[in-house]
Fold this protein.
Amino acid sequence: MKARPVVKWAGGKSRLLDRLRPYLPEGSFGTYAEPFAGGAAMFFDLASEPERRFERAVLADMNRDLVGLYCAIKSDVHALIDKLGKLQKRHLSLTIEKRSEHFYAVRKRSTNGMSDVDRGVRLLFLNKTCFNGLWRVNASGQFNVPFGRYANPKILDEEVLLEAHEALSCATIHHGDYREVTRDLKRGDFAYFDPPYEPVSKTSNFTAYAGRFGPDEQRQLAQELARLHDGGVRAMLSNAEAPSMRQLYGSHGFIIGTVAALRPINSDPKKRGEVTELVVTTYELQKARRASSRAAV
């Protein structure tokens, strides 16, 4: 069975995997790292290959609830499924009006002291029942997306959770800054970075990442990719098609390509169209694979 993301995540790469695969490095790698895990689409895709290319995997994110979910899926998936199933049954037994009240009651719960299983249950419930399936937090780190008013949301997908459990069995999961992962990478390893994007407009930026990630952080990340390259670690990065990003990564001599991406999340349905994203690699691609990636745009 093929593992896939368990959450809908802004900027998730599920729809882009076919276009991103030609940019992956050749051969195998000791450790695969995804320091901005989010929905972890690339990890789940690589973990589902018939002959897995990596020996170990490391996932990290600054979102404590998301990390708790992945830890629960890895270590206690049956408890997660049981609790989520009970919450789903209760929610779907209510009228739409009562479901709204239930949603806001769950949203209001403090996660302080929650177990990973309870954090995971809350995150999945909110992700499946909120408006547009969007995970967004305010400046205080509190989830603030409104109720979605879906007739029959699939809050529990047991098959997807069990597939993710199998994939995550080989992974170490961290809550923290990306540098806590990259500092331990060695020659022959590979890291895929999908950081918070440079906003393409003043209205397109919102806080989905737990912590600020502005121009200074973007520059520090580019420097980290350069450091990894010098140490023999291959790295690939996705970011918005913005002149500042082209200039930043081009100044380090990295290879820059583009892919067309769908923008499925926007409050205005008319703006859910195609956008162009950058794909940056610290290694050369074979000519045939470069042609394949261009053809996919």
Remarks:
- The longest helix spans residues 64-92.
